[in-house]
Amino acid sequence: MAKHTYQTGIIGNCNFLAHVNLNTNIDWMCWPRFDSPFVFGGMLDKEKGGEFSILPVGDYTSTQVYAENTNVLRTDITCKNGKYRVTDFAPRFRKFDQFYKPLMLIRKIEPLEGEPRISVKCKPVCNYGRDFQDMLHGSDHIKFTGCGEVMGLSTNIPITYLIDEECFSLNETKYLLLNYGDVWEGSLSSTCEQYLRETIEYWRLWIKHSSIALFYQPYVIRSALALKIHQYEDTGAIIAASTTSLPESPGSGRNWDYRYCWLRDTYYVLTSLNHIGHFEEMERYFNYVTDISFSENDSFRYQPLYGITGKKNLTEEIAEHLDGYMGNKPVRIGNQAAEHIQNDIYGQVSISLLPLYTDNRFIYSERKDSDKWISSLLNKIERTIDEHDAGIWEFRNIALVHCYSNLFQWAGCNAAEKMAKTIGNKELETRAISLRARAAKHIEACYDPVRKVYTHAVGSHFLDASTLQLIMMNYIDPASQKAKDHLAALEKELKTENGLFYRYIHTDDFGKPKTTFLICAFWYVEALACVGRLDEAVQEFEKLLKYCNHLLLFSEDVDGKDGSQWGNFPQAYSHVGLMNAAYRIAVKLDRPVFL
User: Fold this and answer.
1) What's the average model confidence in pLDDT over 321-328?
2) 354 close to 415: Cβ distance less than 8 angstroms
3) Which residues form the GH15-like domain (predicted)?
4) Chain centroid, CA 579 distance in Å
5) Residue 394 has pLDDT above 80, yes or no
6) Are 121 and 51 in contact (CB under 8 A)?
7) Which of 130, 173, 180, 219 is in Cβ range 3.0-4.6 Å of 110 for a Cys bridge?
8) In whole angstroms, what is the distance from residue 556 CA to residue 6 CA?
9) Can you give the pLDDT at residue 175?
């Protein structure tokens, strides 16, 4: 069986995100927000998902590349009668002292060789593919209506060709501008060209203003660009992925909706943004987390994940009418994990607040109600520190005292202690130190002195890749023999021959995992660098680079045997893992980082 890779690239402008297939189809696009129903969803159902394709008559071959250092995607199609290019982008640039990021998808079609004959199909759907939108056509546009939505497609292609899906000869540049809300009015060709030029300039300037080391720089640049457009700029939330229900492995039933923001990943995301020097994105995400935190100030606990607007109710439903990706059902809308008990998140939030007290780019007045706020966080930690929970991997029917959960309780208390010292509150400082000791006691209860390794939970003999963080977060001294022994035990049991890493290999609610979790392999690389095995860290990092698709985009999961990509795609946190691992190696290499 051939290796499976996702055949799409992504475009976006921090307001929406779309997947463009090598066959030119818009395979996935939710409008008007990341978590809205899709208007194009062929990724999950070829018939009910609608279509927006630009294809030639007869056989063809295609290639796809990004315009260098941008989120502008170019697909070149070679066919019997010639060759043409489709340039897809979501406009984003500065306008009137703010970012202009309209709900607008622009497709430029230009002939490169000969006179290819092509057909353009635009058939948007609504209500998750239960209905096709109605088409009302004008002289130079089509208005789509349905399910309370209105979209307008403006073009210089004869409208009759679009309505009837007729073939025509491409002998001049054509434009397609799909606008949410109503038909867009204005000079089509000059506007599209202006928006394209300014969007390219914006992305290239954004990269120039990034602090990215030379170590495998192209991969880090692409990861940074991918992460950037997973941020919903209106609130600052960063979603795990733009897709839902792409299976972790074929037939596994592990098909989840990832169009939400997980608090458990706060520390890793903020770290990656800090590494590349993008304070504004970091600040927006920080503000999203703090907005949730203040609204939850009197609540007993946080949810593991929230909607991009901070929405709490993410009720999971099954879309029975959809075929699923490559026939893999179920298709899930919403995520039941929002109801889980996951106790590492209090530490994640505490660590995310720490820059307010240690980074001088934040002014003192932004430390809102410090005493009350730190006390509230410590209350949450105290109430949950002895609890069984679902753990980082969100087991649906398993609750234990997890090592990883208590590691972040420990780290959160560390952060709270530093914050308390900054504001001079001795009482809070003492509380943080006391709670940190309680968390450490639970962590030590996971230690197996015979195997010289920390297990994944108290009373369990199973190992878990999440405990690699014990080394990276300096709970175990990276220079100690204990850290080296712990790492050796984990790699012996969880590492594949090809450098991939299983989260765990024991049976969970759905059986034994069949694929590896990519971010765990990047954690392993970081752990190698931490314990001084730098040459191996570089080698293992290089092994992982081959698991991207043709556009350097990485999935959530990778088959440990054939290297196939699975899981929601692209996975923002896989790219975060790559960025953090590359940075960890770069600063330890015995040569200049940037020059």
Assistant:
1) 97
2) yes
3) 217-583
4) 13
5) no
6) yes
7) 173
8) 11
9) 98
HSE-up of residue 182 (Cα within 13 Å, Cβ side): 3
The DSSP element (H or E) to which 136 belongs, if any, is strand 134-137
Q: 416 CB contacts (<8 Å, ≥6 apart)?
A: 350, 374, 377, 378, 381, 428, 431, 432, 435
pLDDT score of 591: 53
- Which residues are paired to 508 by β-bridges? 511
Q: In 70-148, where do the E strands start and end? A: 73-79, 82-89, 93-95, 98-100, 104-114, 117-123, 125-126, 131-132, 134-137, 141-146
Report pLDDT digits (tens) over 158-211: 999 999 999 999 999 999 999 999 999 889 999 999 999 999 999 999 999 999
Tokens matching residue 254:
């592990």
**β-strand partners of 56:** 118
Measured CA to CA, the distance from residue 299 to residue 147 in angstroms comes to 36
Placement of tokens 């290297």 in the chain:
563
Specify whether the CB–CB gap between 246 and 331 falls below 8 A.
Answer: no
- How many CB atoms within 10 Å of residue 365? 6
Q: Cα separation of 62 and 83, whole Å?
A: 10
Please tell me the distance from the alpha carbon of residue 68 to that of residue 46, in angstroms, as a whole number.
31
Residue 443 has pLDDT above 50, yes or no: yes
Concatenated DSSP letters for 182-240?
A: S---S-HHHHHHHHHHHHHHHHHHHHHTS---STTHHHHHHHHHHHHTTEETTTTEE-S
**Residue 307 identity:** G
Contacts of 421 (CB under 8 A, 6+ apart): 429
3-class SS at 455? coil
DSSP label at 474?
Answer: T
Among residues 212, 179, 201, 226, which one has the least CA distance to residue 14? Answer: 226
DSSP state of 44: T
